[in-house]
Amino acid sequence: MAAAWHGKVIGVSMDSDVSAAATIRVREGATYMWADIHTSDSKLSEFQVQYQAASDGTYFTMASSTSDFTTGLSHPMKYASTDVSSLANASSALIEMEVKGVYNIRFNAAAAPGSDASVNIRWQVR
Known about the structure:
CATH class: Mainly Beta
Number of helices: 1
Structural class: mainly beta
Radius of gyration: 14 Å
Number of domains: 1
Number of strands: 9
Helix content: under 10%
Strand content: over 45%
CATH topology: Jelly Rolls
Largest sheet: 5 strands, antiparallel
CATH architecture: Sandwich
Order of helices and strands: EEEEEHEEEE
């Protein structure tokens, strides 16, 4: 198993258009990823978790709707503490996913219409 590594992105400003909040390169041999997502200034209206299988590959969405983060968890998503797709202001969520064979993970977000949100993401890959 690959050694664990971690990182964070702090204070990414999101408006009401869906855009990338963070892209994390997954090293060869990694199996799992955990991410702690925190919002401030406004609630999120959308949150997506996408993966890319190769450096020149297309991104595929693995989770983006309420059921993807709650009752409808499916591989490679393993756990979500709450519905991240509409995370309230000053709230946090924890997600866990399997990343074996994944090249990149990308988190996309959007703030509620007419507002801006600040997103912090702390992550660990093992």
